[in-house]
Design goal:
The chain is mainly alpha-helical. It is about 70% helix and about 0% strand. The chain is built from 10 helices and no strands. Helix 1 crosses helix 6 (about 95-105). It is elongated and about 60 Å long.
């Protein structure tokens, strides 16, 4: 049953975050989920598969949200970028234990599963890059910046928030995402910076 699978994964996430991947046993995961060790192996071939699926659960939601934003015809390019960034931060807050576990324990994912992880992460990055390229072509964003680098900067900024983001803190995840978007837009938007105070003073006195 899907409910049992989800409960086992949620239990593993909690234990992996608290104790670490290697220090957690299948027996402990089963006990926390309220099932036997044999039941865990009925749903999953190994503890490593559970670690892999922790990533899958999070990345699938991100991909789905990003694809939905890309399809929206009611949003301009800058608005799409805003929603992509806000959605990402909100999902990092919602799935924070999953994100923490994945980044902490990524090194233990079996080599044969890594291409599957990379494929979905690449698809996600492609959506962000596509929006950036559309904005550059339309003249909304600067054209002198490399879209690949900007995309990686966005993910670096948002992904790292799992280290300090408090879902119940002073700023909501959405407010944090909007702040990230505003910071980014000032770097890639076409708005010209204001002249410095000295030049402004000279202009007034002319």
């Amino acid at each position: 049953m899907q409910e049992t699978r989800d409960r086992i994964i949620a239990s593993a996430v909690e234990l992996f975050e608290k104790k670490g991947y290697h220090s957690t046993t299948i027996q402990e995961i089963g006990e926390k989920a309220g099932v036997s060790k044999g039941a865990v192996f009925h749903y999953f071939s190994s503890k490593n598969e559970i670690l892999f699926l922790i990533h899958e659960k999070f990345i699938n939601v991100i991909l789905n949200r990003a694809e939905n934003v890309l399809k929206r015809s009611d949003l301009g390019t800058a608005e799409k970028l805003r929603e992509l960034i806000v959605n990402l931060v909100e999902l990092i807050a919602e799935y924070k234990p999953y994100v923490v576990v994945f980044f902490q324990e990524f090194k233990y994912v079996e080599q044969e599963r890594l291409p599957l992880i990379k494929e979905k992460r690449d698809r996600c990055e492609q959506i962000y890059r596509r929006v950036l390229e559309q904005g550059m072509s339309a003249g909304e964003f600067r054209k002198d910046l490399d879209p690949d680098m900007v995309t990686k900067a966005i993910f670096g900024m948002c992904d790292w928030s799992h280290q300090w983001l408090n879902p119940g803190g002073r700023l909501t995840p959405r407010e944090i995402g909007l702040t990230f978007w505003k910071i980014l837009l000032e770097g890639i938007g076409r708005t010209q910076p204001d002249i410095d105070p000295v030049r402004r003073s000279m202009a007034i006195n002319l």
